[in-house]
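Student: I would love a firmer grasp of how sequence relates to backbone shape in proteins. I am handing you a single protein, as its sequence and its fold in token form. I am told such tokens are a discrete way to write the fold. I hope you can help me see how the letters and the tokens relate. Take your time, and here it is.
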Amino acid sequence: MVVVGADVHKRSHTFVAVDEVGKKLGQLTVPADGKGHDQAICWAQREFGEDLRWGIEDCRHLSARLEIDLLDAGQAVVRVPPKLMAQTRTSARTRGKSDPIDALAVARAVLREPDLPVATHDEASRELKLLVDRRDDLVKQRTGDVNRFRWHLHRIDPTIDPAPKSLNRAKTRARLADLLKAMTGIDARLARELLGDIEAVTMRINALEKEITALVTLQAPALLELPGCGALTAAKIAGETAGISRFAHEAKYAMHAGVAPIPVWSGRTEGRVRMNKSGNRQLNTALHRIAVTQIRLDGLGAAYYRKRLERGDSTTEALRALKRRPARTVFNTLKNNPSTAAEPYLPAAA
């Protein structure tokens, strides 16, 4: 088997092929478009045969189009976390940094870590992922508008100080709009404009939330039954998981989500672990929400959290241990749910 590593950029992609022991066999740089991707596939198949595995540094938006074209062509694709690629490059004999060096590091990372999950995406989870990402972007935009709006209010009258989250409610926005109508000056004018922007963005956020809720209720209803898992969290899990069948067992899924503990012991400190800061951080965020919500609920999650604290764990250690449990539950739920575990998955990248 030949592994082809890819270093992706906005305008170009560089590919380096290696054999099973990591020896460099060839390299190619192509434009970052459909024609360039086809050229890379033809080059790899012509030079190295059909038994190929493509390793792509997981750069989300930069690598998405390449993944789609490779999967459409029936190629096996592996996503390599940037941190793993960087570690491989650091340990190599080749000094410096260039596109071929980075692509070579990606290919050798695939050889060194044979259990990396393959890239795959069914259209249903891809739709959820894109909708959730869009809503997250709008929420960030609204947060910035709210902060600027509150500073204008502070300059107008420091006693007018609405809580940031209260501006998500139509009643609060209507009251502030009536208050600003009678005011003059540049601060009042800009505050009215920002309040209108907040109103428009909030309507789009609410519409997206309704659409996401309807989709996740149809596609992954079992997730909504888990304690602490709401519709938006379930949608993020389904979208970021991108096909549960690509994980052989729940331990690999936990490692992918960044909730598997990392051993940090030596000598008499046997058994010590620390929090995993790698993995899919979006999926990690969703599991964190579930864990934090379960702590507030009077259930098994809260009981386990208190048990860890009684054993001498810090709050961080207890939360880390608790996050591992929802990962196992989510994995088994998706595996056993026909609507989310059905095959085959349509080839499309996140």
